[in-house]
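Example 3.2
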Amino acid sequence: MTDIIEIPQTDQTLESSQPLAGETVTFTGTLASMVHREAHDLVERHGGRAVQSMSGMVTMLVIGEEGWPLETDGRTSQKLGDATRLIADGTGLRIVAESDWLHLIGLSEQRDEIRRSYTPAMLSQLLDVSVNLIRRWARIGLIRPVRTVGRAPFFDYREVATTQRLARLLDEGVTPDILERSLTELSRTLAGTDRSLAQLNLLVQDDRVLLRDTHGILNPRTGQRLLDFEQQSADLRLHASTEAPDEEPAPVPVDEEPDADSVVSVSFVEARMQLDDRSMDSWTADEWFNEACRLSEEASFAAAINAFRNCLTLIATESAMLSESPHRVPDVFPDPADVHFHLADALYRSGNSEGAMERYHCAIELAPDFIEAWTQLGCLQAESGRSLDAEMSFLTAIAIHDANPDALLHYSQLLDGQGRTEEALHHWKCYLQLDSRGPWADHARERIRVEQEASAEQATDLPEAT
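Structure, written as tokens:
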């Protein structure tokens, strides 16, 4: 049998095994996975050299994925500008996204974490914005769920963080032109910036600009329907730039329909049918629904509740007319389950918990797989002392989708409150597999640590067997 001779590793072998060997790395923007100091330590541990500033010696610029690397004035960071110029001069500098850098050094778990999708409740905690604002952004198209399970939307963290960043910069007075130039510059180095430009396009729209979708014209700022496009498309051409109020719109041939997903600008004087210029008797269910959501977001709960009820009345009326005239083409209405869900939220926030629970039940009757309705119902039942009912609601939500962090979170809290420690710890661990960044993740880790320490102390206090 031949002896196996171990060949000692030379310095050259060790160097080649380091993924950042020979690289000089600097960072810009906020990192989603760690702070810059930790990133610098990782560069050194993987064979590279970390530096604070940009120079001709830098070979890699890593862009953080916590939103976009935009300064408080809305412009791209100085480092990114310098890097772009160095690349144009023919240097070997590379610009990489944070997730690609994590993959390069073998930290795929952290990369997967920042690419993880989040529920509205999780994003509300992480970004410090209200759940209702996140829902509104989704309703008007600023953000889009990467997937929907049991009617529960899951969003890409970076896209929502980008929307929040753009909205804050606009609120702070940064002009849309500056932001658009910055995002255009970013688009040369990072994928996904085209989507950010579309978000900005919607964010900066005001009373001069409308959004057309398959159901007609929408005011993206309020979510209200303003014009029945299907009836007007043969008479109006919607231009990509704003028309003057006294201009006559050019006619559109009947067989020449504009793109249903395009963002268009029209003069409100010529094209807009303002809701306050019409009798409320002529409002559609869709208009009532969007008005109700807007009122609820503004904490005008009494008015919102009435608007939601008007919406449901119109839906019921339409359903009755369809049953009597089966050949009648139905109007476009919001999903009744969604209307009940939002009505329940408005009722709860107005102090009517019993009414809210009843509406969550209505939503579930119409859509039995409505995870968010089951979860919110469980929260209200737990709050009112109906622990057994709450447990059944949470378990139903988990059965529909066992990777739903919101249901796992609230069920873990319920079990903790009942002193069912072992069961609670199991579900806290399941929760941590889905969310390791937010404040509730910190709480879950602390709960697990305390219980593990208590178990270890109990074990040491046990008398030795004789």
